[in-house]
From TrEMBL:
GO cellular component term of the entry, any: mitochondrion
Protein name: Ribosomal protein/NADH dehydrogenase domain-containing protein
Keyword Ribosomal protein: yes
Alphabetical list of SUPFAM superfamilies matching this protein: Thioredoxin-like
Compartments where found: Mitochondrion
UniProt source species: Neoarthrinium moseri
Composition bias, Polar residues: 104-113
Taxonomic superkingdom: Eukaryota
Pfam entry (one): L51_S25_CI-B8
Keywords assigned by UniProt, alphabetized: Mitochondrion, Ribonucleoprotein, Ribosomal protein
Sequence ranges assigned to domain Ribosomal protein/NADH dehydrogenase in this UniProt record: 40-148
Length: 206
């Protein structure tokens, strides 16, 4: 039987991936997404970094066939830009999307994968992310892509409520256990000190 705590953690992780900021289905015209920002969060790169860590996994979960590349660099004063590629007609497919996996460009932390030029039949829409909060970046992204937001089902909302209640109960239980253990250790220290004092008195009276 699966451990209830482990099952709860797995379910919580799955629900967190499926729902929240970035949970949206992109229209078929979107062919790929490219993000370019610095390695460190300071000098205006905190918002892009948070969008990448918080929103992009959900976008990828709901849009697994759309390439989403990250290019990071060490120039903290440099730009932070998102490029969204669109096919301009339903009959024109993106060459990047059609490439075999082994020939697809890969994300980079050494500025090796800058935003490529659009292929024939593609257009690019950019979002300037620098000094922007991740929520503002997401709102701009949703507006420019026309993505459809995903909302939890009634069953999922019920599971979320139950998980939240279990999490709160677990916090309370940990606090109770901590107080119990702290009190037990305190009593053990008092007992050990009393035994040491008794041993010292016995030695002194010999």
């Amino acid at each position: 039987m699966v451990n209830p705590g482990k099952r709860m953690n797995v379910l919580k992780a799955l629900l967190n991936l499926r729902h929240g900021p970035g949970a949206a289905i992109l229209p078929p015209e979107v062919t790929r997404i490219h993000m370019d920002f610095a390695l460190r969060w300071n000098e205006g790169h905190f918002g892009p970094r948070k969008f990448w860590k918080l929103c992009l996994p959900r976008l990828k979960f709901w849009n697994p066939s759309i390439p989403m590349l990250i290019n990071r660099h060490t120039n903290q004063s440099g730009p932070a830009t998102m490029s969204i590629y669109f096919r301009q007609s339903a009959a024109t497919a993106s060459k990047a999307a059609a490439l075999p996996i082994q020939r697809q460009p890969h994300s980079s932390t050494t500025n090796e994968t800058p935003a490529p030029a659009p292929e024939e039949g593609e257009k690019v829409v950019t979002i300037e992310m620098k000094n922007q909060h991740s929520d503002a970046i997401l709102a701009d992204f949703l507006q420019k892509t026309g993505a459809t937001l995903i909302h939890p089902t009634a069953d999922e909302r019920s599971e979320m409520v139950q998980l939240e209640e279990l999490s709160e109960r677990a916090v309370a239980d940990r606090a109770i256990n901590k107080r119990f253990l702290d009190e037990k250790r305190r009593e053990e220290r008092i007992m050990a000190r009393a035994m040491e004092e008794a041993a010292a008195i016995k030695m002194a009276n010999q």
